[in-house]
Amino acid sequence: MPKLNLVDTSRPKGGETEKITINLGPVDLGQIDLLVEEGFYSNRTDLIRTAIRNQLAVHAQVVTETVTRRAMVLGLQHFSRRDLEAAQAAHEQFDIHVLGLASIAADVPPELAAATIASVVVLGAFHASPAVKAALAGPHQLGELFDR
């Protein structure tokens, strides 16, 4: 595989967040509001983030083992135009398998992405131009893609 460009100022920052929407029953929501009102949490989001982090900590070993077994990148993986051009010149393709955030630079043409990316499996977020996402959406390339 071609060597990845590890320094790229156009790539996404690790602290970026993705917005999610959840539906809660009135009793659960009332309990959350009570804990916020009593000062245990600063707001609803604080409680929900804390609860999610606690559950992820409980299951951390399973996550680690699964990431290793599936040979996934844990965290951020960014592909620049230079990375993909190097793969094309070497007649190689990338299999993108990421738990976290995978991104493809905005200046990557869809034809280059389609020619150099064999498959995409992202558990988390995938940032790429709409044209690149469309080019990778063929049945031979796109695995599970969670972009929420």
Automatic annotation (TrEMBL):
InterPro entries: Arc_rbn_hlx_hlx, RHH_8, Ribbon_hlx_hlx. Pfam families: RHH_8 (PF17723). GO terms for biological process: regulation of DNA-templated transcription. SUPFAM superfamilies: Ribbon-helix-helix. This is Arc/MetJ-type ribon-helix-helix transcriptional regulator.
